[in-house]
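Backbone shapes recur. Consider a single case.
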Amino acid sequence: WLWDEQLDDQELAADVVSGVLKLILLACARVRLTLEEGKGQHEEGEKALAHNFRNLVESHYHEWHKVSEYADKLFVTPNHLKDVVKEGLGVPAKAFIQERIMLEAKRKAHFTDLTTKEVAFSLGFRDPSHFGKFFKNCEGVSFSAFRAKAGK
């Protein structure tokens, strides 16, 4: 159609072609702006998701130890949550959860007289031996050795 207009000897053919091309360029500019706005909204959504994850961990580290449990509560897939947390917080989601659990375990080792078993149950471990393995894997020493080293 545009080609036919250009070939047409009518006086306004060049104006019609020019006008149509301007409309096409305007439409492209709108699409670009829409895509940029969508990208910005997506990034804001990911920041909010990472923030909400951090808040949930703070509230539920003693109950939930798996990324999938947090993903369920945030209505996203575990893989998406892992990607967003890694990007937004700079640490893998699983490591973030484990660091929070370890922080509380160390705090309890330093400031309470709770037994290893009591600490394990207070942190959501159903089996104290699993807590012992978890602690030693993260810290390199057993909970009891850590507590003794802290002077408790």
In short: The helical segments are 2-7, 13-60, 67-74, 78-89, 93-111, 116-122, 128-139, 143-149. The radius of gyration is 29 Å.
